[in-house]
Hints:
- By secondary structure, the protein is α+β, with helices and mostly antiparallel strands.
- It has seven helices and nine strands, in the order ααααααββαβββββββ.
- A nine-stranded mixed beta sheet has the order 2-1-3-4-9-5-6-7-8.
- Helix 2 (30-37) packs across helix 3.
Amino acid sequence: MKLARPEAAPKTPLAERLRLIRVNAGDLDREVAAARLGIGKSTIAHYERGDRTPDAEVLRSYSKVFGIDLNWLICGESLAQRSVKDADEFIRIPRYDVAASAGPGVAPDSETLSGVIAFDQAFLRSLGTEPDKCSAISVRGDSMEPTISDGAVIIIDHSQATIKDGGIYVLNVGDDLLMKRIRRRLDGSIELVSDNILCPTETISADSVTQLRVIGRVVYFCREP
């Protein structure tokens, strides 16, 4: 009696999944499985060893014939699993119904939560932010054009309340909510700079700096269509 040659171990995760499909279908003989798929016995052996990679048409046949989730077959996880994973990679940033003035200072309205914006946490971290310390508001005015336009949505990192020279910040100055680029001067004063060359630079004296409250640094902005 001639003993069957033991099957070689799969070399790739995909090959392992292809073999698992056949085993879970009742440990079918390769010849039977191949016939159902419309391919040769030697071909399925190459696939299960990882010597060859099936093309998209063959993968669709596996999915249809054996009732297999195509996402699991290709990626090793189902669409539902991938959706949960993707959701974990995003953070819901609160968006408030308040506008920072990129123009003459205006008193902010009540900060009412108007919705959320989903952002990739890895992307926000790449900007040097703490994602769970961020929020979104709109911009009113044109003093920061061409950098940031009227109506743009900005992301503020509230953990960055220490001023770094040249950064763009949202500030409370008295009762006004402003968005300006900040420059420090050697005498301790601070300049609130507009990127729009038509708008004058405002200076806050060293004695008045304590009246300025930094809400956070602008780390990202986008324009709604």
